[in-house]
Design a protein that fits this description.
The chain is mostly helical. The chain has two domains: 3-193, MFS general substrate transporter like domains (Growth Hormone, Chain: A, Up-down Bundle), CATH 1.20.1250; 203-402, MFS general substrate transporter like domains (Growth Hormone, Chain: A, Up-down Bundle), CATH 1.20.1250. The chain is 81% helix and 0% strand. It has 16 helices and no strands. It has helices at residues 3-39, 43-46, 48-67, 73-93, 97-124, 131-160, 162-183, 198-204, 209-230, 232-239, 247-271, 273-294, 298-313, 316-326, 331-358, 365-390. Helix 1 packs antiparallel against helix 5, helix 9 (209-230) runs antiparallel to helix 16 and helix 12 (273-294) packs antiparallel against helix 13 (298-313). Mean pLDDT is 83; it is low at 1-7, 188-196 and 395-406. Keywords: Cell membrane, Membrane, Transmembrane, Transmembrane helix. Residues 10-389 form the Major facilitator superfamily (MFS) profile domain. Pfam families: MFS_1. InterPro entries: MFS, MFS_dom, MFS_Efflux_Transporters, MFS_trans_sf. The chain crosses the membrane at residues 12-33, 45-69, 76-95, 101-127, 134-153, 165-184, 211-234, 246-264, 276-293, 299-319, 340-361, 367-384.
Length: 406
């Protein structure tokens, strides 16, 4: 199979895997009352099915990636998808809450490593000028999971029982596994092990200041958007005046913004990585401030919701590409660490938003907090770029990024 014919299929297989993983992460939110009632646990205990998953993602994104750094990437991706299937199968068959939680944790372990390694593989499947776009195509599966997968998964669970949703996700995992096995090239740079000396070489990337700058920008920049989004249902109903029944449809609009922003951010980053990140973070800050100021207007809220999703997720491909750029000789572990940084940002944004509400500042306060985090992320980015201009760096990522051999 030639590389030309393999490219679309390989990226599609990665996107299907990303779709299944995104569905696993988010669909539980709509099914939580059913699961809690079925296992006779309180809402707060059932909430560990969400927070436990997030913690497992953060751990797995670094630890599991480090454990497999010496192995060829395609077999690793196949193994991660098997782990995903086993976790969701365990959830579908769970006879008690502990087994259900174990299934969630097992499924989450593959999350960070799959996106981290998958981003490197996706970048290796295309020409250098299209790498950010390829990463965006893989993450498109995650955005589609939010737009279509979560509403339909919730609907399926409500009509046929929550277990049916996890059976469907298991089936998606099997489909992704077959796609990865058949469509990702079995030889060449996309599946080669890292040339940086295994784990020691991968860890060496973390001696570079720009790698740490990139992680910090990810935590702050993406955390700002997620902090505003975490309590969005309260903002929509208590401030903007929407009926509770309209919230799912408004979230579909938000998801549509995610999808468009992800692809647009990838294309723009292929033209200019630095300019794209600066612009997107600056505009996202403005959008969040505008949203906080106009949240009492339903029309303005709808527009802000779409723009928040678009510019929030437009950061993802360039943020992932930036850390791979500065860890180009050994990008796998750094890429996985950046996925963990996204989840750390999610937790930070949600925590700060909760603090503002607990302080009695109202349901627009998380949006203000999110704007502050995003602005801080922009400031860190500007400092990082100034530092990069003053510090000699190794050549920009070319063949090293995709582990091509001489």
């Amino acid at each position: 199979m030639s590389q030309r014919t393999a490219l679309p299929g390989g990226l599609l297989a990665l996107a299907v895997g990303a779709f299944g993983i995104g569905l696993t992460e988010f669909v539980i939110m709509g099914l939580l009352p059913q699961v809690a009632a079925d296992f006779a646990v309180t809402e707060s205990v059932a909430g560990w099915l969400i927070s436990g998953y997030a913690l497992s993602v953060a751990v797995g994104g670094v630890a599991l990636t480090a454990a497999v750094t010496r192995l060829p990437r395609k077999p690793v991706l196949l193994g991660l998808m098997v782990l995903f299937i086993v976790g969701n199968l365990l959830s579908a068959l769970a006879g008690d809450y502990a087994t259900m939680l174990a299934g969630r944790i097992v499924a989450a372990l593959c999350h960070g490593a799959f996106f981290g390694i998958g981003a490197v593989v996706a970048a290796g499947l295309v020409a250098p000028a299209r790498r950010a776009g390829a990463i965006a195509m893989m993450f498109a599966g995650l955005t589609i999971a939010n737009v279509l997968g979560v509403p339909f998964g919730t609907l399926l669970g409500q009509h046929l029982g929550w277990r049916s949703t996890f059976w469907a996700i298991t089936g998606i995992g099997v489909l992704a596994l077959a796609g990865l096995a058949l469509l990702v090239p079995g030889r060449g740079p996309a599946t080669a092990a890292a040339p940086g000396g295994g784990l020691r070489g991968e860890l060496r990337a973390f001696t570079r200041a720009q790698v740490w700058f990139s992680l910090l920008v990810t935590v702050l920049g993406f955390g700002g958007m997620f902090g505003a989004f975490t309590y969005i249902a309260y903002t929509l109903t208590e401030v903007s005046g929407f009926a509770t029944g309209t919230v799912p449809w408004l979230l579909v609009l938000f998801g549509a913004g995610l999808f468009v922003g992800n692809l647009a951010g990838g294309r723009a980053a292929d033209v200019s990585l630095s300019r794209t990140l600066r612009t997107v973070l600056a505009v996202l800050t403005v959008v969040l401030v505008g949203f906080a100021l106009t949240a009492t207007s339903p029309v303005a809220t709808v527009a802000a919701l779409v723009l928040m999703g678009a510019f929030g997720f437009a950061t993802v491909p360039p943020l992932q590409m930036r850390i791979m750029k500065y860890a180009h000789q050994a990008p796998t572990l750094a890429s996985g660490a950046n996925i963990a940084a996204f989840n750390l940002g999610n937790a930070l944004g949600a925590w700060l938003g909760g603090l503002t509400i607990s302080a009695g500042l109202g349901y627009t306060a998380p949006i203000w907090a999110g704007a502050g985090l995003t602005l801080l992320g922009l400031v860190v980015l500007l400092v990082a770029e100034r530092h990069a201009r003053r510090t000699p760096v190794t050549p920009a990522p070319g063949r090293d990024l995709v582990d091509a051999t001489a």
